[in-house]
Amino acid sequence: MKLNSKVKTAVITGANSGIGLEAAKILAGKGIHIIMAVRNEFKGAAARKEILALHPDASIEIRLLDVADLASVRSFANGILRDYDALDLLINNAGVMMPPYSKTKDGFEMQFGSNHLGHFALTALLFPLLNHTPDSRIVTTGSLAHNRGAIDFDNLDGSKGYKAKKFYNQSKLANMLFALELDRLLKKNGSGTISVICHPGVSATNIFKIGKRDAPLFLRNLANKYYLQPPELGALATVHAATDPSLTGGEYIGPDGPGRRKGYPALETPHPSALDEEAAKRLWQVSEELTGVKFDFEE
Question: Can you tell me whether residue 87 is helix, strand or coil?
C-alpha cells in the first residue's frame, strides 16, 4: 500500500551529518516528512535521534543509499516509487571531497561518480514521482569550488592523471551544469517541477580535516572566525532553495557575506562556466551513457 498523506515528503541524501543533517532538522521542524538517505544505518539512527530531541513529533525514516553505487541508487529509488505516491522535495546533498584517487562500485572516479553521476541517476529514477507531485522541487548542493572547475571529458575517470582538488572542482561544476540544464528541460517540457541549486559558503562541517584528523583547534578557531560558518547557518541556503515560494527554478542560492563564504541566503550569479549550455548538453549525454539512466519527460 502506497503512503498517501497531505504531509509533504522530502528525500535528503547524506542527511546524517553536516549540511544535510542541519537541513533535515529545520525541514522536520516545519512538519515535512523526512526520508534520510544514508550510507550507514547506525549513523542515520543517531542523526534521527538528534532530530527527534529537537522535534519530538517529527516524522522521519531512514533508508540506505550509497550514491557511489548505482545498484544502491536503483534499489533506493525503486523503494520510494513502490511506497510513495508523491514526492515534494529531493535534496541532492551527499558528497565526497578530495579523497585519494579511488573509484566507485561502477568504476567511476569517486568524486565525479558520487557527487554528480549518482545524483543524476537518482534524480532521473525519482523523476516520474516528482513530475506527478504538484509544485515539487529538486535542490542540488553545489559549491564555490565550481568557479575553478572545468569538465575534462577526455579524463573523467582520472586514468590520465588525478589531482584531488581539480576533480572536486570538476564534480561541483558538474552539479551546477546538471541543475541548470535540468531546469531548462523541465520548463521546455512543461513540467511543474523546478530545479534550484545552492551552496553553503564555507561551512565548518566534518570535511574540515587534515587527513583523517581534525585540524588543530587554533586553526579551526581562526577559520571559524574569519572564513567559516557553522553548519546550521550553511544549511540555510539549502532550506531557502527548498522552500522559498518566490523561486521559479534555475536560481542559485548562497550566503550574502564577503566572498559568499558566510551569511544568510541570497540570490547569486553562477560562474560563466556553469552557464555553458553546450557543455551542459554534452555532460547530460555522457551522464546518460555512463549511468544507463535517462529522464522520461514524456510522462
Answer: coil
Confidence band, pLDDT 50/70/90 cuts, at residue 258: low
Alpha helices in 94-163 (DSSP H): 110-111, 118-131
At 81-99, the pLDDT tens digits run 999 999 999 999 999 999 9
Q: What amino acid positions are annotated as catalytic residues?
A: 168
Distance CA 15, CA 94 (A): 8
Q: Which three cell numbers stand for residue 165?
A: 582538488
Percent of the chain with pLDDT over 70: 87
Taking the whole predicted model, whether its pTM rises above 0.85 is answered as yes
Distances 137 to 8, 32, 72, 245, 254 between C-alpha atoms, Å: 11, 14, 23, 11, 17
Residue with the three cell numbers 577526455: 154
3 state DSSP class of 24: helix
Residue in 233, 291, 271, 259 with CA at minimum distance from that of residue 71: 291
**Which three cell numbers mark 159?**
586514468
pLDDT band at 261 (very low <50, low <70, confident <90, very high): low
| Number of alpha carbons in the 13 Å side-chain half-sphere of residue 105 | 10
